[in-house]
Amino acid sequence: MKNTKELLGARIREIRKAHGLTQEQLAEMVDIEQKHVSRIELGKNYPTIDRLEKMATALNVPLISFFDFLHLENKD
Q: For the chain, first and last CA: distance in Å?
């Protein structure tokens, strides 16, 4: 079972890919380094709420959509 950081990261990755963006593109949009996006998506780092808000705005999704990750819970 994945932990919350991993689920949140997987959901951010899922939304980013659905929008056809690379990690580099998202990183540029929210003014962070690509490696930080990678660490968030891998569940190694929690993003701050400010960073999550910037990501939601960049991806044009409601902030709550990042937490809709129950369907990912049992995926490897």
A: 9
Query: Nearest-CA neighbor of 61 among 72, 48, 52?
Result: 52
Cα–Cα dist 10/8, whole Å = 5
Q: What is the pLDDT of residues 13-72, one digit of tens each?
A: 999 999 999 999 999 999 999 999 999 999 999 999 999 999 999 999 999 999 999 888
> Quick one: tokens of 76?
């490897």
**What CA dihedral angle connects 49, 62, 70 and 51, to 10 degrees?**
-20
Structure tokens at 49: 């709420």
Number of residues assigned to the chain: 76
